[in-house]
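Interim report, section 4.2 (structural modelling).
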Amino acid sequence: MSDTHLNDYLKKDVASEPIRKGFGRGLLEAGKKNEHVVAACADLTDSTQMSLFKDAFPERFVEIGVAEQNLVTVGSGLAAMGKIPFVSSYAAFSPGRNWEQIRTTICLNDQPVKIVGSHAGVSVGPDGATHQMLEDIALMRVLPNMVVIAPGDSVEAEKATLLLAADKRPAYLRLAREATPIITTTRTPFQIGKAYVYARGADVTIVATGTMTYQALLAADKLFKDGIDAEVIHCPTIKPLDAKTILESVKKTRAVVTVEEAQINGGLGGAIAELLAEEMPAPLRRIGIKDRFGESGKPEELLKHFGLTYHHIMLAAHEVADKKK
Amino acid sequence: MADSYSIPELETKANSIRQDIIRMLEHAGSGHSAGPLGLADIFTALYFSILKHDPRNPDWDQRDILVLSNGHTVPVRYAAMAHAGYFDRKELMTLRQLGSRLQGHPERTKLPGIEHTSGPLGCGLSQACGMALAMRMNKQFHRWVYVVMGDGELDEGNIWEAAMLAGKEKLNNVIGIIDRNNIQIDGPTEHVMPLEDLRGKWESFGWHVIDIDGNDIEAVIDACAMARAIVEKPIMIIAHTIPGKGVDFMEYDFHWHGAPPNHEQAKIALKELRTLQGKIRSEHE
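Predicted structure of the assembly:
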């Protein structure tokens, strides 16, 4: 796709970087552009990459301590006075621990607080299930007024952060800990609420979000050699969902695979299943975490263990392609 | 406020607000009685003496902010706002009805002058801290955030997270007012979950604490004036109030925490309020 200006992601030594790094750069840039951008963190300033902002704008940064309920409610108060607050912690704790505060004081109260959940997914690795947040997409997606974004790499995370800083809605930004291959470039388009066709195909639609888009692209490349022409849609904004782009693709392929590093129940898989069931029923397989918790291990081991590799995506694509016949 | 009222005038206003609370709750057929009645003197003092605000311009950028953390007591706020001129008093009778701006628990997006949506307990103090921090960042040193809290909601951990932050940041532009009426839904606070030593708790978190009679309008005004003069710490006013204040059969009784008066009870309550619990003999009914 020439208009997507993607990196040469198939080359062996494709550069990679943790997605959260892009957030750190984006927040610093947003802070330079708008003096009302402020930040608060719950004792994880380096891990969430808020330290860049904190060092540049110490007077616009609030250290909350290990208190995630306070983190988001202080954010609500800052927003009430015209600030654009970014509040960060690990996703397991925020939005994991403070859902009701987010519901009432941010979503119902309609304040533009940006909740940044880092270290989402099983690729957190050795810390184990307690710290591997998998339910965050589902938790945030059901909230009215909330925007939910899971960038596919650090370059996109930077763009997403800058656009969220200029957006009036409450939002959840999902970040990962480990280095993720950089598939996009500064010229790759990104808008809140848009899904993008990263690879054109006619046989199967693969919709992926966050860290999994790279795996989906690898799968599509290998599927071509198997005689399956897969279309890959990168869907960084899970809410509001870009139904138009997805349905246009499914109308053509009539077979769908969704891919995410999160619970498929209520996650991207849940969102696509709801959309297809109402608008365009089609064979569907959902790759993601299937109603279980994570566990300790190396990130790459865990991705294999939980069926989150290009290989698993290929098998699912074959399955839905066969079902069509 | 441009207007200046004497204490007896304010007491009369508080009495009218109490009568409106009874009418609103009876009409709505649901809601909380004890808290709003107990808070009527504090809200009268706030809206008619303490707060810098403009009912014709609720978003005035120099206004003080009033956070109501225990949102279930909002009928007292609605009544005080109507009396202050934010909207017509007739609208009070729409409380809790479909399509009303006066939601059962207050919603910012519904009614101008409501600063934040509340109801689920324990969130107001931290929102107030966020507002106070923003004022400090904006170098607005002549604005205050007043935050009214219930005593029962002090069971919430979120309150103490905020208490720590305000102490650490020395948020002298936060003035807390605890409605210390000693009741919550399941019974007396000291049975449900003891709060004492309440003064000691706040002091140990870095707050300056003032104990007052929360049904004494002059004491409320004086305490807030003192609070504004204290620069080194956030200030917590523990306002000792009588739940259900002004209506004899409701006073001190925790069963009235979450119940409205029926028609007969409302009649008795209104008569009591008009006669100041029988002190005014000239009342004819």
